TrEMBL record:
Keywords noted in UniProt: Signal
UniProt cross-references to SUPFAM superfamilies, sorted A to Z: Galactose-binding domain-like (SSF49785), Starch-binding domain-like (SSF49452)
Coiled coil spans: none
Lineage: Eukaryota, Viridiplantae, Streptophyta, Embryophyta, Tracheophyta
InterPro entries: Carb-bd-like_fold, Galactose-bd-like_sf, Polysacch_Lyase_4, RG-lyase_II, RG-lyase_III
UniProt entry tagged with the keyword Disulfide bond: no
TM helices/strands, residue ranges: none
GO molecular function, one term: carbohydrate binding
Record PANTHER family: RHAMNOGALACTURONAN ENDOLYASE, RHAMNOGALACTURONATE LYASE FAMILY PROTEIN
Name this protein carries in UniProt: Rhamnogalacturonan endolyase
Domain spans labelled Rhamnogalacturonan lyase: 17-89, 103-291
Amino acid sequence: MCRQDLGFIGDNYILGNDAYIGLAPPGDAGSWQRDCKGYQFWTRADKNGHYTIKDIREGDYNLYAWVPGFIGDYRYGVTINITPGCEIDLGDLVYEPPRNGPTLWEIGVPDRSAAEFYVPDPNPKYINKLYVNHPDRFRQYGLWERYAELYPNEDLVYTIGSSDYTKDWFFAQVTRKKDDGTYQGTTWKIKFQLDNVSQNKTYKLRIALATANIAKLQIGVNDSQADRLLFTTGVIGHDNTICRHGIHGLYRLYSIDVPGTLLVKGDNTLFLTQAMNTSPFVGIMYDYIRLEGPSSSTST
């Protein structure tokens, strides 16, 4: 048996209600996602951040956690040895989510899913009546083809302050099918304004992915040229979420330094290019995106 109170910290403690907490084989934070050989035991915290895990197989484990509404992964730093009949009280544990500065803008909800984004109606010839007027709209067949129908010539443009991610952010950044039957990668743009820029300081871009499948995300700031990219993930993911009509796979969080010299006062554009183009099923789903100002603030 393992008991714990889980809290999340900002200026004040926040109870870790509804957190997912589990024991899994020792590893790095988040490594439980990729483990397929060991035993795992999971539960959810109550409204006060309390939880109990029972009926655990004896062995060595790390304790892992994540909570809807916060980015990142928690790992208790000490290996926990479970023996028959033992009771372990870990006391109060605190997780400090990644944060460098104040939020300048954000898109989505950090819950490891793309379900809050725009999921289109399916092609009428593919409709599955089980999912008509159903919250799991993403279960409909062929939704990857709808992106090219909605954006036949130009890719998605999202404007901070006027766009609505539930209506204007397509749930998956997929390829576009061309007239000759081949596919091309897509470049999405996030347009935002800054009232002032500290060019001698560093901003922080947080990009949480809900899933990826043979994808390569390339990021540029006010410049989309491949030879002047701010960041690239390289080729990532084998989740097959798009073709299996899913909405999440393995969670990935990228924290990217943005030099103030790349930003300007007034209009700015963030370019998100998914460069792989081998099939309709390569692509990514975003969980949450946030731009933070320089580290003059510690609020979360």
